[in-house]
Amino acid sequence: MNTAYQSLCARLMMAGVPDARFDAVQLYKFVTGRDPRLDNGPTPDEASSLRVLGERRAAREPLQYLLGEWDFMDFTLKVGRGVLCPRADSEVVCEAAIELLKDAEAPVVYDLCAGTGCLGLGIARHLPGAAVTCVEKSADAWPYLTANVAGTGVQAVQDDIFTYYNRLPSGEADLIISNPPYLTAEEMAHLMPETAREPAMALDGGADGLDFYRLLTAHYRDALRPGGWLVLEIGCAQAADVLALGAANGWVNGSCRKDYGSNDRAVLLQKPEKSC
Ligand code: GLN
């Protein structure tokens, strides 16, 4: 009987950790390299590391931060305190962009508010001809982004998207993708304990959660070539508002995609082929 694993499970359950068993298995594997369900127990050193990590998880530090890396699509990203954890929900946003670009030869792509770089890196992996630039303002997120893009050919730029559009050439980009902060003030006041440990800067979308969509729809059309796309992750209740912002700012062919949990998750907006 692996009593160390049993007590880790019990500790995490008592702390109200969602998916306590899953997290216990991951932490045990991380510390020992072995599956707790097939193992007799940790060494004394392993047991003490496990206790420390168990207490941190019981205090609701995100599992992703404790493990230091997390999978997204078919690759693994470095994560930690100071950067938004990549989420499975965002995979459909990346897949929508890859589909839009599948016939493009050497598409120019920007990932704005890139965080770990998950969206831009996902595009680059699936479209090896793409020239991808990940833009991130946060000094705390920056080391994760640079570590993740290293050796991939993806560029990282530290800049503020509220002014970055002034530095982009006109009409050259094929696609801009972004998972901007989009939580409302009300949502920010009621975060899950784990989300509250993630950077507010990556989550806080202003009073109604739409500040970044106003900016992106108003200022990032010029950088795209005619027919280019803006692909946005959204909160599940924001599709109508973001589509309306798109229409009001001269974008066409707006549509929404759901994630694998059947929630609205991506809005796609196209720059008109011809300006009229
Ligand atoms: N999907 C995240 C959450 O619900 C929010 C991400 C964001 O604001 N970009 O916690």
TrEMBL record:
Pfam families, sorted: MTS, PrmC_N
Listed EC numbers: 2.1.1.297
Domain Methyltransferase small: 98-187
SUPFAM superfamilies linked to this entry: S-adenosyl-L-methionine-dependent methyltransferases
Any one GO molecular function term: peptide chain release factor N(5)-glutamine methyltransferase activity
CDD domains for this protein: AdoMet_MTases
Keywords: Methyltransferase, S-adenosyl-L-methionine, Transferase
EC class (word): transferase
InterPro entries: DNA_methylase_N6_adenine_CS, HemK-like, N5-glutamine_MTase, PrmC_N, RF_methyltr_PrmC, SAM-dependent_MTases_sf, Small_mtfrase_dom
Record domain Release factor glutamine methyltransferase N-terminal: where: 4-68
PROSITE patterns registered for this protein in UniProt: N6_MTASE
TM spans (from-to): none
Reaction(s) this enzyme catalyzes, per UniProt: L-glutaminyl-[peptide chain release factor] + S-adenosyl-L-methionine = N(5)-methyl-L-glutaminyl-[peptide chain release factor] + S-adenosyl-L-homocysteine + H(+)
Domain of life: Bacteria
GO BP of this protein: methylation
Protein name (Swiss-Prot/TrEMBL): peptide chain release factor N(5)-glutamine methyltransferase
Organism: Gemmiger formicilis
